[in-house]
C-alpha cells in the first residue's frame, strides 16, 4: 500500500480545498505520494460539495469517468470525501459501484485505516461527525499552491440553520480551532515565503477560543495574525451580516495588511424573505451594516451571495433584491438559483413553488444588474494606484504579471524587475469585466 500515489479532485467552496490539503498531509505522513496526473494515481479521492443539486450531479457524472479508469486498472481505489459523502453515507455504495471508500469531513484522520480496509477487500465507510475535531495539529500539505497565497481553516461546522442550507447537516456543530495553532501556522507560512493568508470559516465572526484565562474573539485573532508581519496580507471569509462587529471593522482599519474587502452574503433584499430564510437580520439592518463599513473603511470592496427564487418569493421580493443591489452597489457577487436540499427546514416545511422558468428569469436579471455594477466599480478604479501582490505570470502572456489589490480585484500589468511574492504600486489604465489592467509606477 505504501509508496502508492493519490490524486485528489476537489469541488465546492474554499473550505473543501483547505480540507483536501489536510487529507494530503495525512496521507503523505503515512507514506503515500501525491500526483497531479490522474492517470498515474493508484487512488483517486473526490472531495465533494452538496450545496446545490447541480454540484452533486457533476460529481455523479465524474464517477462515470472514474468507472472507465477502473475498467482499465481494476486495482484503482476510488473514494468519496466531503459533504456529499456525509449526506448520502452508505447509500452511495449501493448507487455508485465504482466507490470503494466513503469518508465524511470529520473522519479524515481515519483515512489510513479505511484504505487498509479497502486493501483487504472490503468497502470502507466512516461518516461520524465530531464535536471537537479541528485538525489543529495537522500542517496542511500545500500540494497545489502558487507558494504565495494559502487558506487557513479557523473553525468548522455551522449552527445557523439557514432554511435553504445543507451545511449544518453535513458539517456538524460549530467549533473553533485554537488561536495559538492558527498563529503558528500563519508564521510558518510567512517564513516559507507565503504572503497572503485567507482565514476560513462558515461564519468567522462567531469564532471564539477559550484560552482558560479569557476568550479570544475573531477580531482579536485577526489582529494576532496581522501582527505576524506587515508583509503578510490577511483576508477572511465568510462574514455573516448578523454577527459582523464594530470591533472587527475597527481592527481592519488599524492594520494596512488586513485586506479591505468584505464578503457579506445578503441572500435577498426582502425582509420577508430573509425572515423565511432564517437569516437573523432585516433589509434595513443589512443596509445599516453596509453604511458602517463604508464609514469606518472607505474604499473597502463589498461582495455578496444572492439566491434567486427561494420558496414563496414574490415579484415584489425579487424587486427588493434588485433595489438593494443598486443601493449597495456590490463590487462582486456569487448568484444562484434556489435548489432544494433534503433535510433542510425549507425542504421539510416549505414548498419549492417558484417555477423553474421564473427562477431562471430572476437569476438572469440579478446577473445582468451585477455585471453593470461590477463594470461601474472597475471603471471607477481607472486612474487609481493600488498596491498589488504579484502572484505569478498572467495566463495569457509571460510578458505580464498578475496579482491582486487589497480589494481582491485581479490586476494585470507588464512584468517588472520584481518577483512573485513582492508588492508593487500599479496605476490602472483600463479594465475588462474581470480584470484591471495597468502599469507599475
Ligand atoms: N456560510 C456562508 C454564509 O452564510 O454566507 C456561505 C455558505 S454557502 C457554502 C455559499 C452560498 O451558497 C450561500 O451564501 C448561498 O448563497 C448559497 N446557497 C446555499 N444553499 C443554497 C441552496 N440550497 N440553493 C442555492 N444556493 C444556495
Ligand atoms: Fe449555510 Fe447559513 Fe451556515 Fe452559511 S450561515 S453555512 S448559509 S447555514
Describe this structure in words.
- The protein contains 14 helices and 21 strands.
- It has helices spanning 14-29, 53-72, 82-88, 91-95, 111-119, 167-171, 179-191, 218-226, 246-254, 271-276, 283-296, 315-328, 345-349, 356-379, and strands at residues 5-10, 33-34, 43-48, 77-81, 101-103, 124-126, 149-153, 155-156, 175-176, 196-200, 208-210, 215-217, 233-237, 261-263, 301-308, 332-337, 385-393, 400-404, 410-414, 423-431, 435-440.
- The chain is globular and about 65 Å long.
- Iron/sulfur cluster is lined by residues 158, 160-162, 165, 167-168, 202-203, 240.
Which features characterize this protein?
alpha/beta; 6-stranded parallel beta sheet; 5-stranded mixed beta barrel; 14 helices; 35% helix; binds S-adenosylmethionine
The residue-averaged pLDDT reads 97
Put simply, the count of helices is: 14
Termini separation comes to: 54 Å
> Which runs of at least 5 residues are low in confidence (pLDDT < 50)?
none
Class from helix and strand fractions: alpha/beta
**Residues in β-strands, percent:** 15-25%
Shape: globular
Can you give the helix content as a percent range? 25-40%
Strand order of the largest sheet: 2-1-3-4-5-6
* Sheet having the most strands: 6 strands, parallel
- Indicate the radius of gyration in whole angstroms: 22 Å
Number of strands: 21
Bound compounds: S-adenosylmethionine, iron/sulfur cluster
